[in-house]
C-alpha cells in the first residue's frame, strides 16, 4: 500500500508543531508558523514534500471550512445593523485600492489588465489573521473592530465577482454576458439558501437532534456545508461562496452554536494545511534575487492600504484615531488573494516570477500584521494629538454637534453598546438627564431622529467632553470595549472635573489596577459579574430558595468587591464618605403600600431594631429631609437613604416591601 500522503501529512504537522511553538514565544500568530512550515518543507527548500498536489487539494477544503464557519458565526441581523460599514466602507475600500494599485501598475509599465488584477490581489485583507488577533485582544466590539469587520465582510463577499472578472481581464470567457449569467445564478442560490434557512435547515436539524446522536449531528453539518458548496460549484460559482451561504443558513437556526463548536476542529486542521500549502509554493531563491524590490513592495502595500482604508473611515465620518487603527489593521494581503493568484497564474495575468514576488510580499505583510496593530494605537494617538481637533473628530456632518448641552447634574454615557443602551433606557424612564457620546455616525443619526441627546465624537478629546457638559455632570460612565481608550477617557474626565464620579466597564480584572490609578471611582469587571450570574443560574437549577441564593450572591459580591475596593483605595484621591466607612454601604429604598415600615415612626425603632440600618435622609416628593426627626413617619412613596452593612441592607429591604 502507498502511504506517501499519510507520511506527508505527518511530516507537515510535526514540523508545524515545532515551528508554531517557537514563533508563539515571540508572539507571532500561528498562521505565520504554518506559512514558514510550508516554506521549509516544500520542494524549493528542504524538500520533505516533493509533490504538493495532494496537500493543495486538502487545503481547498480548508478554505471551504473557513467560509463555512465565518457564515455560521455571522448573523444576517448583524449584517443589516452594520450595512453602512459593509456596503459603503467595504465598497469604497475595494474600489479605491484597486484603482490606486492599477494606476501605480500602469505607471510601472504593466498592461492595464495586469495592473487591475494586481489591484484585485492587494485589495483583499486577511479575515483569518485579523479576526484571530482582534479576538485575542478583545477588540471585536470596539469601533475600529466593527469598522474592520464591515470591510472584511464586503471583501469576502467580493471574492466571487473578482474570480469571475479574472478570465474577462485575461481576454477569456464570454465577457459581460457570462458574468451576468453567473451573477443571476448566484442570486438564485442566495434566494434558495434564504428559504432553506427558514424551512429546510431547521426541519433537518430537528430530525437529527431527535436521534440524540452527536455523530449524526456532525455528519449533517458537514453534509450541509460541503453539499451546498458542491451545488454552487455545479452552477459555475465558487466552493467558497457556497460554503459561506450554507454557514449563513445554519447561523439563523438555534443549533448554530453547537454546529460551530463541532466543526471548528476540522476547520483549524484544514486551514493549517491551506497556509502550509501556500508556503510550499514560495521559492526562497526569490528572496535573495530581489531583496530591495521585495522590501519596497511590502512597504508600499502596507502604506497604500493603510492610507486608503483610513481615508475610507474618515469619509464614513469616523474619528481619525479609529480610522487610522482600522486602516493599519487591514494593511496586509488576505488568504483569498492566494486563491485568486492561482487563477491569475492560470490565465496568464501573472508570470511565474511575478507570482513568486506576490507570494513573498503577501507572506511578509501577514507576518507584519501583529506589529502594525501594535503600532496602530501610538501612531493614531500621535496624529490626533498633533493635528487640530477639527481635523481629527471626523468629517461627518454629525461632528457638528451644535451648542453645548445645557444639562446640570446629568450622566454622560460613553458608548452606546448593550451596556450604554440599557443604562440610557433606564435613565430615560426615571427622567434622569443623560448625554450619550458615540463614535458610530449611523447610530448617532438614528438616535438623533428619535430625539435622544447624543454627541458624535471621541470622548478622549477635551472638546467632546466639554461639549457634553463634563464640568456640570455628576457621573461619567465609560461603557466601551477598548481598554486603552477607556483609560484615556477616564484620565481626561478626571482632569477636567476633579470631583466627578467616574464609572468604567471593563472586560477583565487585570485592567482594573491601571484604571484605579487614574482616579476612577468604580470599575465594573464583566469577568466578575459573569461569575456571579453563573452562580445564580446554577443555584436556581438546583431549586435553592431565593433568599438563600441572594445570601450566597451577597457573600460573593461582598468578598469580591471588598478585594476590588482595596485596589481602589490604594489609588483613589477622593473616595468621599464611603472611604471612611469600612464595610458599610449607602442605599436607598422606596416605601411600598402595605409594607411593614409604612406608618411607622423613627421613634418606634422598627427599622433600627429589625435591621440595624440608620436613616441618613428621606425624600418625599421634591422635598429632601436630611437627618430627619424621630417623630417622622414613613408614608407610601417615601424614599429613605440608609447607611448599613450589606447584611443590614438585606434585612432592611424586606421592611420596605409588602409582606
From TrEMBL:
Ranges for domain RCK C-terminal: 573-658
Boundaries of every RCK N-terminal domain copy: 408-525
Main location: membrane
Cross-referenced InterPro entries: Cation/H_exchanger_TM (IPR006153), RCK_C (IPR006037), RCK_N (IPR003148)
Record's subcellular location: Membrane
Membrane topology reported for the UniProt record: Multi-pass membrane protein
UniProt record similarity statement: Belongs to the monovalent cation:proton antiporter 2 (CPA2) transporter (TC 2.A.37) family.
Protein name: Cation:proton antiporter
Organism whose genome encodes this protein: Geomonas diazotrophica
Amino acid at each position: 500500500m502507498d502511504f506517501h500522503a499519510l507520511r506527508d501529512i505527518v511530516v507537515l504537522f510535526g514540523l508545524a508543531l515545532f515551528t508554531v511553538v517557537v514563533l508563539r514565544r515571540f508572539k507571532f500568530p500561528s498562521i505565520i508558523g504554518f506559512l514558514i512550515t510550508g516554506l521549509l518543507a516544500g520542494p524549493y527548500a528542504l524538500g520533505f514534500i516533493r509533490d504538493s498536489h495532494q496537500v493543495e487539494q486538502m487545503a481547498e477544503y480548508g478554505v471551504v471550512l473557513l467560509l463555512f464557519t465565518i457564515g455560521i458565526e455571522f448573523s444576517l441581523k448583524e449584517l443589516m445593523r452594520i450595512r453602512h460599514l459593509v456596503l459603503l466602507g467595504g465598497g469604497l475600500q475595494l474600489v479605491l485600492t484597486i484603482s490606486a494599485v492599477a494606476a501605480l501598475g500602469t505607471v510601472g509599465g504593466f498592461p492595464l489588465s495586469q495592473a487591475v488584477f494586481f489591484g484585485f490581489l492587494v485589495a483583499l485583507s486577511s479575515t483569518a489573521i485579523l479576526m484571530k488577533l482582534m479576538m485575542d485582544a478583545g477588540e471585536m466590539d470596539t469601533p475600529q473592530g466593527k469598522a474592520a469587520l464591515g470591510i472584511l465582510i464586503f471583501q469576502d463577499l467580493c471574492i466571487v465577482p473578482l474570480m469571475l472578472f479574472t478570465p474577462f481581464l485575461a481576454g477569456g470567457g464570454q465577457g459581460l454576458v457570462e458574468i451576468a449569467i453567473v451573477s443571476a445564478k448566484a442570486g438564485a442560490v442566495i434566494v434558495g439558501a434564504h428559504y432553506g434557512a427558514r424551512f429546510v435547515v431547521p426541519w433537518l436539524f430537528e430530525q437529527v437532534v431527535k436521534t440524540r446522536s452527536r455523530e449524526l449531528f456532525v455528519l449533517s453539518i458537514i453534509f450541509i456545508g460541503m453539499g451546498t458548496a458542491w451545488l454552487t460549484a455545479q452552477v459555475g460559482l465558487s466552493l467558497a461562496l457556497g460554503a459561506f451561504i450554507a454557514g449563513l443558513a445554519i447561523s439563523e437556526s438555534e443549533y448554530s452554536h453547537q454546529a460551530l463548536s463541532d466543526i471548528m476542529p476540522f476547520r483549524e486542521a484544514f486551514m493549517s494545511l491551506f497556509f502550509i500549502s501556500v508556503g510550499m509554493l514560495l521559492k526562497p531563491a526569490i528572496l535573495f534575487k530581489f531583496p530591495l524590490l521585495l522590501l519596497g513592495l511590502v512597504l508600499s502595500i502596507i502604506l497604500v492600504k493603510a492610507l486608503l482604508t483610513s481615508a475610507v473611515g474618515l469619509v464614513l465620518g469616523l474619528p481619525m484615531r479609529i480610522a487610522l487603527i482600522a486602516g493599519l489593521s487591514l494593511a496586509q494581503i488576505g488568504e483569498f488573494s492566494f486563491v485568486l493568484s492561482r487563477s491569475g497564474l492560470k490565465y496568464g495575468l501573472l508570470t511565474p516570477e511575478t507570482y513568486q514576488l506576490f507570494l513573498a510580499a503577501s507572506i511578509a505583510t501577514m507576518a507584519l500584521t501583529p506589529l502594525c496593530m501594535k503600532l496602530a494605537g501610538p501612531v493614531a494617538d500621535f496624529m490626533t494629538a498633533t493635528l487640530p481637533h477639527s481635523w481629527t473628530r471626523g468629517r461627518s456632518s454629525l461632528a457638528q454637534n451644535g451648542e453645548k448641552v445645557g444639562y446640570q447634574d446629568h450622566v454622560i454615557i460613553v458608548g452606546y453598546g448593550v451596556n450604554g443602551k440599557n443604562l440610557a433606557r433606564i435613565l430615560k424612564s426615571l427622567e434622569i438627564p443623560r448625554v450619550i457620546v458615540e463614535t458610530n455616525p449611523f447610530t448617532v443619526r438614528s438616535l438623533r431622529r428619535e430625539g435622544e441627546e447624543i454627541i458624535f465624537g471621541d470622548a478622549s478629546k477635551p472638546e467632546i467632553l466639554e461639549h457634553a457638559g463634563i464640568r456640570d455632570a455628576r457621573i461619567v460612565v465609560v461603557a466601551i470595549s477598548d481598554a486603552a481608550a477607556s483609560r484615556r477617557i477616564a484620565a481626561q474626565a478626571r482632569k477636567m472635573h476633579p470631583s466627578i464620579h467616574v464609572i468604567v466597564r471593563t472586560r477583565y480584572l487585570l485592567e482594573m489596577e491601571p484604571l484605579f490609578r487614574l482616579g476612577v471611582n468604580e470599575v465594573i469587571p464583566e469577568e466578575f459579574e459573569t461569575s456571579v450570574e453563573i452562580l445564580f443560574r446554577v443555584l436556581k437549577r438546583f431549586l435553592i430558595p431565593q433568599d438563600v441564593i441572594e445570601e450566597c450572591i451577597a457573600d460573593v459580591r461582598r468578598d469580591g468587591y471588598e478585594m476590588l475596593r482595596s485596589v481602589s483605595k490604594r489609588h483613589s484621591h477622593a473616595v468621599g464618605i464611603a472611604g471612611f466607612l469600612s464595610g458599610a454601604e449607602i442605599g436607598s429604598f422606596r416605601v411600598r403600600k402595605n409594607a411593614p415600615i409604612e406608618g411607622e415612626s423613627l421613634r418606634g425603632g422598627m427599622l433600627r431594631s429589625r435591621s440595624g440600618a440608620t436613616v441618613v435622609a428621606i425624600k418625599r416628593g421634591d422635598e429632601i429631609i436630611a437627618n430627619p426627626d424621630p417623630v417622622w413617619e414613613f408614608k407610601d412613596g417615601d424614599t429613605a437613604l440608609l447607611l448599613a452593612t450589606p447584611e443590614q441592607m438585606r434585612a432592611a429591604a424586606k421592611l420596605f416591601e409588602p409582606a
